[in-house]
Amino acid sequence: MSANATFIVLSYSARAYVQALVQAGYHAIALDAFADSDTQQLASMTIKLPYNKNGFDADVVMHTLQNLLANPAQYEDPAKNNSPLNIQGLLYGSGVEAMPDLVLSISIILPLIGNAPEVVARVKSYEFFQDLHALNIAHPQTSLIPLTQDGDARVLIKQCNGSGGTHIHYAGPDTPLSDYEYYQREIVGDCFGMLFVADAQGCECIGIHQQWPAQLPHCPMAASTMLGPVSIATSIQAQILHMAETLTQHYQLRGLNSLDVIVSEGQVFCLELNPRLSASMDLYHTQPALMDLHLIASQAKPAEQIVNQKNDSESIAADVSGAKENDQSLAIRAKKIIYAERDMYLANLSSLKNNEHLVPDWISDIPNTATIAQYQPICSLSAEADSAEQVMNLLEQRVQSLSEWLIKLQSSKN
Question: Which of 85, 139, 250, 318 is least crowded, fewest Cβ atoms below 10 Å from its Cβ?
């Protein structure tokens, strides 16, 4: 890789991917909706972009990228004494899959690190469920016309190109669909995700994690808590891996992807395929190696070259395979997004955010603003322990500690 190799990261929140790039020895330019404090500390440049329920403003994104390529120095922070940055390409995370035309436009001016624009467009459309049916992959009943009530099973309305669960809500008796929406019969069960790396012909499971929603009043399925890696029944794991392999070959997936499923009475149902970087990377100790895997697998290399191509002294295969072979020795991690229950003013946050003695290292995605609107994310918490029970108990303790910390920040306004 070239000296000062730099990658642009475009995502609703870029921090996790910027962190992975930096830990793997690369430079990163972050384009996201928050410009959080820790993102700014990690990235060579951080640019906050407008974002609404429809995603990024495509014109603003393209204008920003074109300016970056023409004159990156205008965005540099003099305090960081940056060397000239050698931009190698763009990686994308959540929020971008809602805009396949934008992904296509980006691919014209920059190497796109990840799945091709046409893959993103197909996976994030209603045709995805038609593909699941044709591939004989189990999934909840899905329709563009209203579904009748079936016992206690409620009906959800989802958005094809949505992310983070904030687009999901329950359907009323006569609730119409908006653009890109569909009806889906709810299945009660346990939700899991699988992070995997693909080379178009096959895939490798990085790990399986369990996930729970935040159950906010206006969006009951908003992404909140992840726990992983978790051990599940061999038969369940085999079903999930078979789905991932089938979808990899069908869509010619490349790089890191994630698959969301729900397990009910021993049956696995596919909910969603995310053909992009996943926030679940935060759960794995092999995070820097995973970013290398993504960069290499996205270059259309033969499968046998994917896990052995960084430097002679560094083996991605050893990092990833070794970690997987010693799962029992790895601590289990949990991540939780904390949402504001009401409009919040966090006085003195600007003086705390850069002080590592005042902000614990288990708090990330630290806001760069003192005002947080109701139901918007405040930050993320993490915990690590030797068992799922221990890590969830620790996470709950940290939720309580954060609540007390936020009360102090708010009270200092007066």
Answer: 318
CA distance 399 to 335: 11
pLDDT in tens, 213-241: 998 888 889 899 999 999 999 999 999 99
**Amino acid at the residue 25:** G
Place of tokens 């990085």: 206
Directed axis angle between helix 100-109 and helix 58-70, to 10°? 10
- What b/e sequence results for 206-231 when a residue is b if at least 16 CB atoms lie within 10 Å of its CB, and e otherwise? bbbbbbebbebeebebbbbbbbbbee
CA distances, 353 to each of 41, 349, 361 (Å): 10, 6, 11
Exposure letters 180-201 (e unless 16+ CB within 10 A, then b): bbbbbbbbeeebbbbbbbbbbe
CB 163 within 8 A of CB 94: yes
Which segment of 30-39, 116-125, 198-207, 404-413 scores lowest on mean pLDDT?
404-413
Question: CA nearest 361: which of 347, 379, 382?
Answer: 382
pTM greater than 0.85 (yes/no): yes
Strand partners, 255: 198
Helix (H) or strand (E) holding 245: helix 234-251
Contacts of 377-381 with C-beta under 8 Å, sequence gap 24+, read 377/13, 377/337, 377/338, 377/339, 377/340, 378/338, 378/339, 378/340, 378/344, 378/406, 379/338, 380/335, 380/336, 380/337, 380/338, 381/335, 381/336, 381/338
Distance CA(410)–CA(115), nearest Å, equals: 43
Place of tokens 């046409």: 118
Closest C-alpha among 114, 117, 70, 84 to residue 98 = 117
Beta bridge partners of 5: 86
Q: Dump pLDDT digits (tens) for 399-414.
A: 999 888 887 766 655 5
SS3 123: helix
